[in-house]
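Journal club prep — side note

Before the paper discussion, L.F. wants everyone to see what a predicted structure for a comparable chain looks like in token form. Sequence:
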Amino acid sequence: MAERLLVYVADPMCSWCYGFAPELGALCERYPDVPVHLVMGGLRAYNTKVMDRAMAQTLGHHWEEVHRKSGQPFTRTQLERDDFVYDTEPACRAVVTVRENNAPLALPMLHAVQRAFYAQGLDVTRGAVLTDVYASVCAAADDSEFDATAFLAEFEGDAVKATTRDDFVLAQEWGIRGFPTLLAVHGERPHLIAPGYMKASGLIERTREIFEAA
């Protein structure tokens, strides 16, 4: 394990994780040589129930609060549908697919899926949409290795589905029940930085304390 490592437990369809993205970005700019390992939390993984109006209203209120605190843009496109199933497993699985095959683009993929869902109103429960999102991530990174057929095949394969489920189990075993959760590993020891949304100043200060400790 790396001497210094950030472990980020998140879900691409968690609104507070989306709000947290600029704060995490500021921390990463402060510590550009510290790798970030993603663990997907599975906020509403495997949900099969169509979202009703009451749930849509509740989520809408949450999104408004995240917007007020973070400034991140939101659209209510998916909340206004009468057939939307809020299953976060496919979006988590897409990030895991990238993490397992093109690790440097895993965090950009997470952020791109968040923007696609919350800011652009795209249905990120669909494999075709997630493939397009990954294509945009590769293009932004000038990564010429993108292959839509290969990505979709990997995304739909049993191996990545199992690995994604393992992420959910790991988060539960760690006792993590809320997202975002950010940990710092110094040597072999994990330290909790943020058990939820936190502004960049607090993240940077807490991380500095951990990394500078003997």
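L.F.'s comment for the group: The radius of gyration is 17 Å. Keep this in mind when we get to the figures.
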